[in-house]
Amino acid sequence: MSCEVTTSSTPSMYGNADRNLLMAHVQKHFGAISGIGQAQLPSGGALDILALTPPSRKHIGRLFSAQTSPSAGEETILLTIGAGARPMSVPKDSELPPRAEYLIRLPADWNVQSGEERDAWPVRLLMNIASLPETTQSYNAWGHTFSFSQGLPFADNTGLCAAMLTGMNDREGQCRLNDGEAVTFYEVIPLYAEELTLVAEQSPVALIDEFIRYNLPRVVTPDRPNVAVMAKRRAELVKNFQAMEDSKRHELTRHMDALSPEERIALKESLAADGGLTRQASNLVRQAMSFFKGRK
Asked: Which residue, among 232, 266, 271, has the nearest Cα to 248 in the 3D structure?
């Protein structure tokens, strides 16, 4: 099921006053509305999908490093309005937010109006996640992961096949309705199967750390690097470096330009892990890392 982005919309299940609050919040913190599409939830309620153009990178709390993030006008945000109109079945006496909306960030040239699966899968993903609490009488929350395709890629142009929810700071990530109840905004991060396994075996934070480590942007890229595969290779490299004599490892710090980014990170971790990171080696690694970051 795809959702065509148009320039008109009918009201969602929010009352007019609450919907106005949400729309004002969205435009203040996430960007100007360039289009609105509509889909139906299993209950029959309306779910709007807003297409937004962010004015700058200041509107979203940082999850990954901003070094490689797009600048103004280089991304489109798709955001639901209507998913949080009904509260989720959160556990009693928990502090989990019962109302939520969802967003995903795409390159600005993504064809959000296309019905082709290679273009429409982000909309389908948003709809699946938004409707899940209602169809299963459960709830979505930070760090939750989803796999709706039984491990199969979302489309033929990507290996991404799953997703995880992350959050934002309170100012941007929550909107108070007229009765004082908050609607929380979650960001959807598409994942590879190996990354889904990493979350299950370690934690959502462990996966986010890998994104930060490799300075990956949050905008969806169908062929982005698989950080779980990179983490596995880095762990093997760390072991290999630790098996070397200290003199050989320190010598490698003088030739960082000959190493891959994974090797540079692994070498630094190897030296730090056993206390072998001398001041001289530390300075060499820091200089080399800064140099290569500046060349990206």
From this structure: 271
